[in-house]
Amino acid sequence: MGSYINLVFLLATFSAVHSYIEYDAWINVELHHALDSDDPDIFKYRANITIPSLNSGLSNVVQEDLSNEDVEKIKSLAVKNGFYRMKAIVEYPNGVKRTFSTANKACSILSAQLNDELWIAIDGSGFVNAITLSTSGVDINECSLFDFSLSTRQYNTEVLIKHTELAPVADTASFIQKIEREREARERGEVKDNRGFFAKYWIYIVPVVILLFVSGAANPDQQK
Ligand SMILES: *[C@@H]1O[C@H](CO)[C@@H](O)[C@H](O)[C@H]1NC(C)=O
Hints:
Elements: H1 2-17, E1 27-34, E2 44-51, E3 60-63, H2 68-79, E4 83-91, E5 97-105, H3 106-111, E6 115-122, E7 128-135, E8 156-163, H4 172-187, H5 197-218
The chain binds 2-acetamido-2-deoxy-beta-D-glucopyranose.
Protein name: ER membrane protein complex subunit 10
Signal peptide: 1-19
Family: Belongs to the EMC10 family.
């Protein structure tokens, strides 16, 4: 009984950790942002994020404060209803780098007072699928109606790791085909159960034998 409970516990633990990656790893993400609407290809260093363990999801974020000049640039992007664009360069332990990009309305960044969330989606092998910058600020349709005053020069970024769930795929079609083939074969009389008596009925015999043993062991006096 004890080992049965252990097995159930083991299976439950396995299914609970299954949505995480098997071999944990660290990644480093460097953020660069484009603030200049006149020079949209210039990306400026913004932050360095270290994630020591993808499974634990804890991160260490080191960010640059915005200069007054940067704030003016974001405001002018917002006035034009433009996008605040960001490049995220992911570095893996083997030194390989991959670049992702994400964008958000400049006025959303301002209305959220530089509070933002960086979503990092990873697949089952620990590789990044996508990086998305979102804000939980007020959803503004018309940026020009907004007052763009900022009370801070400091980003406050929450880093969220999203593990991709790999759901088991049921192969229903081939299972139904198999059942159909077996049924047709039975109807044609092709399937003959030509196993021996014990091979056919062991599932009935074995419990009876065990039961006899158990009751014999429980009442040794009766056999004397
Ligand atoms: C970012 O952090 C990593 C790990 O701490 C470090 O190796 C890297 O040089 C840093 N990059 C920058 C631009 O500061």
